[in-house]
Design goal:
Blueprint: H1 2-7, H2 12-25, H3 34-48, H4 51-63
Amino acid sequence: MRSLYDNCGEDAELSKRLHAAVLKTKQDRFRGNPIKENHIKRALYEILQNEEQVEKVYKIIVEQEEY
């Protein structure tokens, strides 16, 4: 969650919402599975409303072991 905070303008509320969305939608072994990845991206898009931001945040999420 710290990485989300650092890369989302240090917006704590936004970071919490993104973190919760990922935890709610992620499925086991989502990395490399386009269908599972799209579930997460859709949840991120509902919050961010910007495809470029979704891709940026998704790249951060994939690198984090906690997800």
